[in-house]
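ok, trying the design again with the full structure, not the truncated one.
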């Protein structure tokens, strides 16, 4: 078992290191100059940011002071979200990169086709200019060429200004018209631009900067919008669920379902107050808090949860544990929410006019001997009555079906929270979000009102759901 854990940890570290190396290569190495300030800063960021992310993840369970948790949480968790979307954007950029290079190559080839004609014109102009230039004006002879250099007969006859002692060009026995042409041709060859310069390095840099800049812009915009969606608070969603056994008198009964609030180093008292205000404005008949209220201890987060005391519903507010409560001291939190006016349902049931409301502990409680007990909560009830079950994780739906539950209300999945996380959530949960039927039992899964880890949601907006029960006899 230890070997498996070690191998898994090594695989995870290798994956993270590989992702950051790829990120550094595409966003830093390929877009900056060696030894430049931008490259140094980018390299430091790629090393420091993952360390902050590791600190943010482990700080909550390592007993680190809450202030330190808050200082690590914002940059560390936001970087995890940014890393995900930077990688996705860069992978898309890999497909765009060759297309952009090919486009630039064609443009350069079209421009290069016009260079020979221009080069010929430039050579002719150069020859004429050399022919008109006095001896010594353009030649690298210097003052030491002698006082008679400017009055040499060669100048008047078109003889090359480079002719003379030490030049290697004889001024006798040759056609007087040839030296100027020879000199001008040499001068043109040495000064004219290459008609087909190698533009590959600059082209690669341009492509890397365009793709990297676009990827960074898209990723940061996505994370920014997803963060705004979490911090503004959840929106109300309404769902009508018909129950065959629900009496006509309970038709239209409304349950406010809120899950996965995740109070912690990032989401605090203000987040709780927004949720309470939203629920109360909907005026539900009953409120169900379906687990994962907190990510921390009562000592650190008790004040953040206090606004829950302001929840108002005609038939009261109820609470069941989620898996995160067992990371934070479930017994202490059960006692604390009771003090705030919520009634915990720990494998128990209460009768509400028109139906039975039951609640079971989360499956994470099995490690503490306090897991879900469906027999205790549901075995002796009157099955002629409609029943609604509060259970944090959708995976217990098979037990709900076996005990004849009409409707199970759950959370836990966050709807995937960060796309494409919904695909992974679908591998571990029967339903990721929304209402589905399993035999005679219906399952509704809320996306949750908060966020775990990065305070970011993409493709899975947070919600508080008003579930309206409908009687088929109404």
């Amino acid at each position: 078992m230890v070997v498996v854990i070690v191998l898994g940890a090594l695989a995870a570290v290798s994956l993270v290191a590989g992702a950051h190396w790829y990120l550094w290569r595409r966003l830093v190495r390929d877009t900056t100059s060696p030894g430049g300030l931008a490259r140094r800063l980018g390299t430091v960021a790629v090393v420091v940011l993952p360390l902050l992310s590791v600190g943010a993840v482990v700080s909550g369970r390592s007993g680190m002071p809450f202030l330190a948790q808050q200082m690590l949480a914002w940059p560390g968790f936001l970087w995890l979200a940014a890393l995900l979307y930077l990688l996705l954007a860069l992978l898309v950029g890999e497909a765009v990169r060759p297309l952009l290079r090919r486009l630039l190559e064609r443009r350069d080839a079209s421009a290069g086709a016009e260079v020979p004609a221009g080069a010929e014109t430039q050579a002719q102009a150069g020859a004429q200019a050399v022919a008109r230039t006095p001896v010594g004006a353009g030649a690298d002879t210097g003052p030491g060429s002698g006082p008679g250099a400017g009055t040499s007969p060669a100048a008047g006859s078109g003889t090359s200004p480079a002719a003379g002692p030490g030049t290697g060009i004889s001024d006798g026995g040759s056609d007087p018209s040839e030296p100027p042409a020879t000199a001008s041709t040499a001068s043109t060859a040495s000064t004219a631009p290459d008609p087909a310069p190698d533009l590959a390095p600059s082209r690669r840099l341009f492509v890397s900067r365009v793709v990297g800049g676009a990827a960074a812009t898209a990723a940061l915009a996505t994370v920014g919008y997803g963060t705004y969606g979490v911090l503004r608070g959840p929106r109300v969603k309404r769902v009508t669920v018909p129950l065959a056994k629900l009496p006509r008198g309970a038709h239209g009964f409304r349950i406010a379902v809120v899950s996965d609030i995740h109070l912690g180093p990032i989401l605090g008292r203000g987040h709780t107050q927004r949720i309470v205000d939203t629920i109360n404005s909907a005026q539900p008949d009953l409120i169900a808090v379906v687990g994962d209220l907190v990510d921390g201890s009562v000592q650190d987060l008790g004040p953040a949860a206090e606004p829950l005391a302001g929840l108002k519903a005609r038939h009261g507010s109820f609470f069941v544990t989620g898996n995160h409560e067992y990371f934070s001291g479930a017994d202490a939190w059960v006692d604390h929410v009771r003090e705030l006016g919520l009634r915990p349902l720990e494998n128990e049931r209460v009768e509400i006019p028109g139906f039975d409301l039951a609640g079971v502990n989360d499956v994470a409680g099995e490690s503490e001997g306090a897991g879900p007990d469906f027999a205790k909560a549901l075995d002796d009830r009157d099955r002629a009555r409609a029943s609604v079950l509060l259970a944090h994780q959708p995976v217990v739906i098979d037990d709900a079906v076996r005990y004849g539950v009409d409707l199970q209300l759950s959370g836990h999945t966050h709807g995937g929270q960060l796309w494409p996380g919904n695909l992974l959530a679908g591998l571990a949960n029967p339903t990721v979000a929304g209402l589905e039927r399993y035999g005679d039992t219906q399952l509704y899964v809320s996306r949750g009102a908060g966020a775990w880890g990065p305070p970011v949601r993409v493709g899975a907006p947070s919600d508080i759901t008003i579930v309206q029960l409908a009687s088929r006899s109404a």
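Keeping the full-length input from now on. Confidence is low (pLDDT under 50) at residues 117-121, 129-190.
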